[in-house]
Specification:
Blueprint: E1 10-22, H1 31-36, E2 46-58, E3 62-66, H2 73-81, E4 88-93, E5 97-100, H3 113-123, H4 128-142, H5 144-148, H6 159-170, E6 177-180, H7 189-204, E7 208-212, H8 216-222, E8 225-230, E9 233-239, H9 240-252
Parallel strand pairs: 3-7, 3-8, 5-6, 6-7
Antiparallel strand pairs: 1-2, 1-4, 8-9
Helix pairs in contact: 4-6
Bound molecules: adenosine-5'-triphosphate (ATP).
Residues 21-22, 24, 49, 67, 69-75 line the site of adenosine-5'-triphosphate (ATP).
Length: 254
């Protein structure tokens, strides 16, 4: 693995990050609003899905993101991956990122699994020769059902098969930062165990991991540090054990 950062330099710096979304709720407009808004029926009301978020992540750290539904976990991962841009502040990432954020791994439904492997790995800087070399290894990891359907359109894959292929591709890239959203829950038990072993191997190589999970077992197994997102704010940043304790106390008092 080649590093762009020097030892001790953070690989991710998130500084006062904020993003605003449209609430997307429609409501009846008053005559006055219709006149001023040119008759559109869309509500332009916005809310901050994340705000005032600041933290740094060092090389090789394994960070677990926790928080209730809608707390902003996936949104934060997307901003680190660079697929969403902030409205305030910045997320500075100094190494390449391999994200598995959407269930579909960002793959294109109309293309075959094989074409998606080449497309995704190519976008992450791998040459066709390099992909040829790793192709079998990727498909072996994804399993026999994926191998049987490797030339079928990706959209015909079951959700479990989609995640198998997504995880296999993302973790065979040479990117130093790996983002995994709550996608492993879809895989069956055997596959999840294989994924866990691979994540352990990636951490041993010194890669940096961000894991979103609602499973305490998974978070404790992989993450040493936790970030707790609550209502779009960073409620706590500490050891994974402390963060889970705090989160559990909050859940009980809800
Ligand atoms: N593209 C979007 N447009 C408008 N609102 C959005 C968009 N994406 C996310 N949101 C909203 O932003 C908030 C944070 O969503 P996010 O998916 O980041 O939460 P989460 O912590 O990952 O939740 P979960 O645990 O349910 O996966 C939610 O209120 C969600 O509805």
């Amino acid at each position: 693995m080649e590093w762009r950062t020097k030892p001790g330099q953070p690989v991710i710096t998130v500084d006062n990050l904020g993003i605003e979304f449209l609430r997307g709720r429609k409501r009846k407009l008053s005559l006055r609003e219709m006149v001023y808004r040119g008759g559109t029926s869309h509500d332009k009301e916005t809310f901050w899905a994340l705000r005032n978020i600041s933290f740094e992540v060092g090389r090789g750290e394994a960070v677990g993101l926790v928080g209730g539904n809608g707390g902003g976990k996936s949104t934060l991962l997307k901003m680190i991956a660079g697929t969403l841009l902030p409205d305030e502040g910045k997320a500075q990432v100094r190494e390449g990122v391999a994200p598995l954020i959407e269930l579909t791994g960002g793959f294109i439904g109309e293309l075959s699994a094989r074409e998606n492997v080449y497309l995704t790995a190519g976008l992450h800087g791998m040459s066709n020769d390099q992909i040829d070399e790793r192709f079998d290894q990727i498909i072996d990891f994804a399993g026999p059902q994926v191998r049987d359907g490797v030339d079928k359109p990706f959209r015909h894959f079951s959700s479990g098969m989609q995640v198998r292929l997504g995880f296999a591709v993302i973790t065979c890239l040479d990117e130093p930062i790996i983002l995994v959203d709550e996608v492993l829950a879809v895989g069956d038990k055997g596959f999840r165990e294989k994924c866990y072993q691979r994540m352990e191997a990636l951490l041993e190589q010194g890669r940096t991991l961000f894991l979103v999970s609602h499973s305490e077992g998974d978070l404790k197994r992989f993450c040493t540090r936790g970030l707790y997102l609550k209502g779009g704010e960073l409620a706590a940043d500490g050891s994974m054990d402390d963060i889970l304790e705090q989160y559990n106390v909050d859940i009980m008092s809800e």
